[in-house]
Amino acid sequence: MPKDAWKRIESHELKPLTALFAQEPDRLGRLSTTVAGIYFDWSKTHLDESLLDAFAALSDEKGFAAEREKLFAGEIINVTEGRAAGHLAERGSGAPDAVELASTRRRRMRALVDAIEAGAFGDVSGILHIGIGGSVLGPHLLVDALADEGLRLDVSFLSNIDGQAFEDAVAVLDPGTTLVVAASKTFTTAETMANLDAAIGWLRESGVGDPYGRVVAVTADPDAAVEAGIDESRILVFSESVGGRYSLWSSVSVSAALALGWDAFEELLEGAAEMDRHFRYSPGQENVVLMAAFADLTYTQNLHCQTRGVFPYEERLRMLVSYLQQLEMESNGKSVTAEGKPVGRPTAPVVWGGVGTDAQHAVFQLLHQGTVTVPVEFLAVAEGGSQLPAHHRQLLLNAFAQGAALMRGRESDDPHRRESGNRPSAAILLDRLDPRRLGSLIAFYEHRTFAKAVLLGIDPFDQFGVELGKQIARDLAEGEGENDLDPSTRALMEKSGL
Ligand code: F6P
C-alpha cells in the first residue's frame, strides 16, 4: 500500500454502502453523533475504518491539530492577506485580546439596539438592510430561519444592483418609520453604495427630513462610512480580520438582533461557541466536523464528484444553500496552495441544492439515476415549526425515504426503472430550530470548510478571484477598457445599448 496518505485515500476501494452496513455491526454508532442538540449521521457515506485511518494519517501529515490551534489562537492563518481569521473572537472562542475587543464592540452594538428599541430613532417599524454577499446572506438566513420566534420588526433585504430589487425591497416598508442598515466590510462595494444612495433618495423624497440620520452603517472601515455621510455615532465597527462570509457573528447582524431580540443573538453566539469547543477538543473519530470533512474529500478526491447537494427539508432553512454556497465556494474555490503552488487536486465542489420536498419533484431524478454521483446532505428539524403536525410528519418521512432509496436502489428487469443505489447521503437532524442550534449548525459548516482547506493546503480566507470581474465592470462604468474587450463582450454591450 502506498505510504502517502493522499494516495491511500485516492486508491481506496469504496465498498458498497449496504455491504459496509452488513460488515460493520456498529457502523451507525461510529458514524453518527449528537452535538449541541443536532444529530449528525454520516453512516450512509463510504467512510470506513481504513479510510478514516488514511485521513488520520493525512491530518498528521498536514499538521492539522497545529493549524487548528493557530485558528483559535488568532495567529495569522490567512497568509495571503497576512491576517488572523477573527470570526471566532466574535463568539468568544478566539484569542483573549481579540475576544475582548469583539465584546467591547458588541456592547456598542447592544447599546445601539437598546437605544433604537427605547425610541431614540422615533417609531421604527421596519429595517431596510442593504449589503451583498457576506454582508447580507448571514442576517437574511437568521431572520428567515428564526422568524417564527416572533419578529419585532419587518426586515427587507436588498443586495442586487437591479432597480427591480430596490423597488421590491422598499415596497413593503413605510419610509417614515424605516431604519436603513448599510452593511459593507469595505464600504466601497458598488452595489451597496448605489443602493444606499437610492435609499437616501427614497427617504428624502418621502419627506424624511434628515435621511442620513436614519442610517446605521456596519463596516470594518469607519472612515469610508464617515466619508459616505454617516455620523460616527451610528457606525458599528467590526474587525478587518473577520471575513465577509464569516461576519454574521459581528454587528453585520444588527438587523437580525433588532428583529429577533438581543437574547436570540447572544444565544446564536453561544451555540456557535459550543460547536467551536467540539471542533477544538473532540478527538479525531468523535469529531463531527472532521467526519464530514473526510467524507467530502472522499467524494472529491476518490470519486471526482464535482458537486455536493444540500437539501433542507425545512422551509425555515430555505436560505441555507445560498449561505453555504458563499461560505464553501468563496472559501475553497481555489487552484493554488497557500504558498501559491498549483494545488494539484480538486478543491471545492459546486454546492447546490434546494428545499425538500420541492426539490424532490424537480431534480431528484438525476440524483437517483443520473450518470454522476452527487453526495447529498439532508437537513431536517424533528420539532416542526408550523401548526400542521401531519405536514411535518410527511416532510420528515420524505427526507428519510430519499436517503434510504439512494442507498438501497431498486432491482428491476426494466433498465428504465432500475436504480443503482449505493449513492451516498448524510443526514443532519436538529431536535428543534432555535438560535442556539442555528449557531452551532453554521459554525459546523465553517469549521468543515476550514478543515478541508487545511487538508488541501489552501487559504480559505481570501477571495482574490472576485476582483477581476469587478474591475472590468468598474472600468467600463468609467468609460475605460472598452478597447480591451473581446468581440463577444463588446457585441453584448452594443446590443443592450450601453
Ligand atoms: O465580491 C465578493 C465579496 O468581496 C465578498 O467576499 C463579500 O462578502 C462581499 O463581496 C461584500 O463585500 P463588502 O462587505 O465589503 O461590501
Protein model, in words:
With 498 residues, the chain is an alpha/beta fold. The chain has 20 helices and 11 strands. The protein has helices at 5-11, 17-23, 27-30, 49-61, 64-73, 87-90, 96-117, 137-146, 163-171, 190-205, 222-227, 254-260, 262-281, 288-302, 320-332, 364-369, 389-408, 435-456, 467-477, 487-495, and strands at residues 32-35, 38-41, 126-130, 154-158, 178-183, 215-219, 235-237, 307-312, 350-353, 376-381, 425-430. The strands form 2 sheets. The protein has a 6-stranded mixed sheet, with helices on both faces. Strands 4-3-5-6-7 form a 5-stranded parallel sheet, with helices on both faces. The longest helix is centred in the first third of the chain and has 22 residues, at 96-117. The protein is globular and about 75 Å long. 6-O-phosphono-beta-D-fructofuranose binds next to loops.
